[in-house]
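hi! just following up on the protien thing from before. the input was this:
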Amino acid sequence: MTRTTTLPTALDLAEALIACPSVTPATGLVFDCLEAQLKPLGFTVHRALSGAAPDGPVENLYAVRRGPPGSRHFAFAGHLDVVPPGEGWSSGPFLPERRGNLLYGRGAVDMKGSIAAMVAAAAQVPAEAGTLSFLITGDEEGPAVHGTLALIDHLRAVGDQPDLCLVGEPTSVQRLGDMAKIGRRGSVNVWIEVAGKEGHVAYPHLADNPVPRLVALLAELDALVLDEGTDWFQPSNLEITEIVVGNPATNVIPPKASARLSIRFNDRHTGASLSALVDEIARRHGGTTRPVVSGEAFLTEPGAFSALLVAAVEAETGITPELSTTGGTSDARFLKAVCPVIEFGLCNATMHKRDEAVAIDDLETLARIYARVAQAALTAGGSGGDAAA
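and the predicted 3d structure came back as:
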């Protein structure tokens, strides 16, 4: 690749992306902006709208700069959509503003700042090092039905499978570099309904009250100890998140009662096994269930990939990141089916909050870390010993 005199800075790139409103599902302008940033760096950009209402259409972008034949393929992944900004910002959420050493704007941390750092990093990695790509969706904060999953379908259709993938979620906690995510717990939500027979409360023998059965059902579920955790995962937890009877009368036994629960689980379980467990208990109490699995647990076993990330962070920050599986879900839950995946990005203290902000120095440092990771992954291997399970 022919180097230009002035490489793009992560700060300038982040400001340009933040200035494009992109509440999920994001389409259009923000993708125009990213495409304009990538094309001068030699990337071929493919954009497509996927899916239909109610969860689509969603815009996705796959950009690739091919290296020499037979070279390795490293992918950056992330999302351009953001959560709604809400009210009460000190400045316009989509009017990026520098105040002191901070850049303010919706997406500064989650995760336009990381994508900007990825682009700045790509400018530092020579094309002869190997194939570099971007997998960017406009729907990670929403249903995520037609986002990264559609990108994975495209990868398979064109025969492009990265050897390694880095997702730019904001994983750092106290300072940039203190945590990386090598796995995530799975997530399943279950809707439960217990049917009864309505009637007057003074004549309970003529009715069938579903509420006591639902209460007993939920008590049994709440008492479950799913596991004690593993070497890399905290214990799985089941939480009752809603109970609904919908009975406006004080003297009527209701015809049905329902509840919802959420289970975050480690790699000792699957969404299907936990759904079956809840269903078995529910049926004993006369209930039915409807489970929805949002993602399975996965772990990228520590190995060469995590080692090169740790080395890059140490070189630029002087600290060693903790390898963790804590937190919620991310699109890494889909990408792990393609290749080993690790998440690493900015400090997460202000994500999804008013006055979301990123330290300007962190943007530039993150770009250098990403460049080191990409260069090492392409030229020195990096998959040996890592496996997504």
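Residues 1-5 have pLDDT under 50 and may be disordered.
The longest strand covers residues 186-195.
cheers
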